Amino acid sequence: MSTLNRAVRLLLIATVGIVMMGFGGCPPPPPPLNPQSLPSDAQATCVVTAPVFATWFQSGSVTLNGVVNPANSVTFPNVPNCSFYQWSKQMFLWLTSPAPATYGGGGGLILDSPTFYDVSPPAADGSRTFLPHTPGLLRNFGLRAAQVGPQGLQLIFDSSGKLFQFKPAAPGAKLLVREASGQTVQIVHAKLGRDKKTILLDTNNREIQALLPQAEKVTEREQITQMPIAQKFIIDGIPIFVDPSLAVIDVEQGQAGGNGVLEALPGGSLVYYATIVNDVYAYFTTGVDDHAISATQFPTTAADLSAITTFASAHGKTFPDPNALTVEVKSAWVEAAGLPNLSSYLTMTATVPAYNESNPNTWTPGSPAQKTVQLALVGMHVVGSTAGHPEMIWATFEHFANTPKATYSYINTGGSTVTVNQNTNASWVFSQTNSSGPFNQEHMSFSSPNIVSQPGFTISPSDTIRWKAFGAASDVSPNPIDGSTAASNTEIISINNSISGMIASGDIRNNYVMTGATWTIGGASPSGGNQVGTSALSNTTMETYQQGTDTTLAHGGTNCFTCHNSNTTGVSHVFGALKPLF
């Protein structure tokens, strides 16, 4: 046999062997997963049937970008976990539906319709105001800033993952810290070492080895009311945090601003946000303030709703969808200009702050101070009360192109646990392609009225990642129903896949993914052990710098109930601050 014939024969044998492996031998490896998609072979542990999905639509059938009804929160089945995720998906589709005539129309989204009210930023006395939506009105969106706790204090993690709340030190206050020896010394200068660790110097220019807070392994979320209140000092432009014992909190620079501002890579847009509430929420708040409604919790029953509708009717108001109960939405947006695949985003025109960007370290208010732009939706929290849950269900959504996901696991249709490794090889809005980090480091923060750079950075986009890909930490079982993180992730992937498989091709809403939802067992006030669903939940556009430093809870990470920690009306930070409608 010639050498050529032998080579051809070996090639044929190899080819046949490869083909046969695809049928009966070892299966060929699955194709690589697109970083901006979800595994298609996840177990269907949480689904919506096609007939039920059709009833979600106002027309009774699935239509392209069609109007979706809100979930009926009064008759909410309250069966963990899937009914909570179904409620969340339906509410998102409702809010992002085109507004029908019954909502005041105007051609915008339901969340932009007169059925909803903007919540103003806090005034000097802390009060907020309802800002009615009217057709044709350009809404004002504020600058995105870091989350705060229920006492209005900002949050920060130390290097061990422990969460602190903090407030600025009093003007002129001396920075006193305790050395490891126990002596108290005054710090007058600070500088950054090569590793960006802060070096503290006393009045004699001596380098101080400051006492650090006692390290604690984080196994469950602490209540924020139990967290120590630290003070923030600025020494030589470097933020220093000191706890009540005068121990210096070890915080990485780049994660220490506490009022971080996020910037998109495409177009260089800042992130802007708005908080809105629905008509039921607005009249409930006003009725409680007017003493016409007696309540300490958000409505969950038909009787609760009846009291609100009666009050509203007495003031000439009817609700197009009262069974939605009280709904609060926080949304995050970037300027549409420069975004690739703009047609994949929900958009609206709004007014946002404008800045003079000539100084790379300090942006001052521009002249004029505002500009009118087209905005694209990148993130949304959907929060609402339902039967059995006055603490509300807290769900969150993001555009697929926002950020890469850290390594996560799920269970496939064969019952095997599959690991999807971190993959940054795609075009992202908040991360460089193929970035290897460091991730989630603040490059800039808001220092009213300016935006200022953080030490070691200029004002610039940072690389962001979603550490807990679907709201569950890798080292802690997220809830009693799901015994593993993989099982919890599978439910979220499953409900997303279920809706994606039935929604009309080309529906813009299909470009957004639900990354989780959380609630408490039995609607109780949140505590470390009763937060369930996806109980390490955050949104990369809003809790960018509160995610911890990796996939574990041991190294930090908040849940919605870390800050919203009651089942009374106080669970909503805007409730007590809002002035009544009239």
The share of residues in helices is 10-25%
Mean pLDDT over all positions = 86
Strand content: 15-25%
Number of strand elements: 23
Structural class: alpha+beta
Could you characterize the architecture of this molecule?
It is a single chain. The chain is an alpha+beta fold and 582 residues long. It is 14% helix and 25% strand. The chain is built from 7 helices and 23 strands. Strands 1, 2, 3, 4, 13, 14, 15, 16, 17, 20, 21, 22 and 23 form a 13-stranded mixed sheet that branches. The chain has a 4-stranded mixed sheet with strand order 5-6-11-12, with no helix packed on it. Helix 3 crosses helix 6 (485-500) and helix 4 packs across helix 5 (302-314). The longest helix has 19 residues, at 3-21. It starts with a helix and ends in a 19-residue tail after the last helix. Residues 1-27, 216-225 and 253-257 have low confidence and may be disordered.
Question: Characteristics of this structure?
Answer:
single chain; 582 residues; alpha+beta; 13-stranded mixed β-sheet; four-stranded mixed β-sheet; 14% helix; globular; disordered N terminus
Topology:
Layout: H1 3-21, H2 50-56, H3 82-95, E1 116-119, E2 130-132, E3 139-140, E4 142-143, E5 154-157, E6 163-168, E7 175-178, E8 184-192, E9 198-202, E10 207-208, E11 229-235, E12 238-242, E13 272-278, H4 279-289, H5 302-314, E14 327-335, E15 347-356, E16 362-386, E17 389-399, E18 408-411, E19 417-420, E20 444-447, E21 450-453, H6 485-500, E22 512-520, E23 531-533, H7 560-563
Parallel strand pairs: 3-15, 6-11
Antiparallel strand pairs: 1-2, 1-13, 4-13, 5-6, 7-8, 8-9, 9-10, 11-12, 13-14, 14-16, 15-16, 16-17, 16-21, 17-22, 18-19, 20-21, 22-23
